[in-house]
Design goal:
With 67 residues, the protein is mostly helical. The chain contains three helices and no strands.
Length: 67
Amino acid sequence: MLFLAVLLSCLGCSMFFYFQATFSGLGRKRWALAGLMFGPLAWPMFTMKKRVQSARFISIQSVLFNA
């Protein structure tokens, strides 16, 4: 029973990271695999990668409009 709960949690995290990576413009397969392997422990890595990617994009474009 515990194994099934852990498996469903990892599959859910995998789907979550896949969709979040799609919306963020990051590698979908890479983050789905990270979600499958590490589960919710991959969240800090994902947010840091997303922050670095957006900072890199902003520095390249060099114009940022705040609403």
